[in-house]
Amino acid sequence: MLFQVYGDTAIYQWIGWILVFCCLIGANELARRTKTGGVIAFLIVPAILTIYFITIYVAAAMGAEWALSNPTYVHMTSWFHYAKLYAATAGCIGFMALKYKWGKIGKSEWFKCFPFVIVAINILIAVASDFESAIRAWGTTWVSTEGVTLYGGWHNVFNGVAGLINIACMTGWFGIYVSKKKQDMLWPDMTWVFIVAYDIWNFCYTYNCLPTHSWYCGLALLLAPTVANFFWNKGGWIQNRANTLAIWCMFAQVFPMFQDESKFAVQSVNNPNVNLTVSIIALVANVLALGYIMYRAKKQHVNPWLQEVFKGTRDYEQAIARQEVAA
């Protein structure tokens, strides 16, 4: 068992997982299908929440009891949560700029590499967090600012390296397109090879560094965009991922008790041997993914980062078929 899902609360834990999974899929559909939905989700709501967060911290600094006891202030104090929220939201905004061709930047060729840059930044944030645990508590434990006990050791190093390799697995940086209905920003070369390697690595990251949240952000949150990509939004995985990640971070930041202390809360087994096993799997998966990419690139005599290497594969062709055709 990876998680402590048993006993009287198991039914609530499974219901919570299903609700989070379904709500994330639904929220992504609302945000991606219309410009209004995207603007509300990734411009208006984050602006309101920023004001809310600043108000809480200013009031807490002044000693206001309501702020000092606010769940966001008490349970979501880590730098990681805020970095992830705003990095994911920045990705969503940039993807909309590309999708709707906003201004000169949205129409420019050079800005097509933005998805690679923002995804790399998001991965590096998690890699830094993994290495932080290794440095703080090698072979022992440390308690985060949120009161979570974390183990440090080789599992952090292995998964941190897997994350760095995962960045190199993003191919065809400039192969960014818009779907026919302008609902999606497409990255056809980001096929199942990268998606599977990323999902395994990111699950391992949450398992290592967010053991009290991994049931939701390590499983439900990762599966929601992956399922959408495989069944009805081919080529739109990175947009799905950014949308669902930003939406989840907003929810978790405002309602942290859902994951931390409610009937829906789920703890991982938090065993260093289990962490090590998962981390080795993540590292192997990413090494294999990069090896396959290098094999295809060499066979086709192309630069895998500046050119697309998965042309001709089923995933790529299904995604590129959704591309908007110029009139």
SS content category: mainly alpha
Which regions have little confidence, pLDDT < 50, spanning 5+ residues?
none
User: What is the H/E string?
Assistant: HHHHHHHEEHEEHHHHHH
Number of helix segments?
A: 14
Span from first to last CA? Answer: 54 Å
- Large-scale geometry: globular
Structure summary:
The protein is mainly alpha-helical and 327 residues long. The longest helix is centred in the C-terminal third of the chain and has 29 residues, at 272-300. The protein has helices at residues 10-33, 35-61, 65-68, 71-75, 79-100, 103-107, 114-136, 154-168, 192-209, 214-231, 237-254, 257-260, 272-300, 314-320; strands at residues 141-143, 149-151, 177-178, 185-186.
Give the SSE layout.
Blueprint: H1 10-33, H2 35-61, H3 65-68, H4 71-75, H5 79-100, H6 103-107, H7 114-136, E1 141-143, E2 149-151, H8 154-168, E3 177-178, E4 185-186, H9 192-209, H10 214-231, H11 237-254, H12 257-260, H13 272-300, H14 314-320
Antiparallel strand pairs: 1-2, 3-4
Helix pairs in contact: 1-2, 1-10, 1-11, 2-5, 2-11, 5-7, 5-11, 7-8, 7-9, 8-9, 8-13, 9-10, 9-13, 10-11
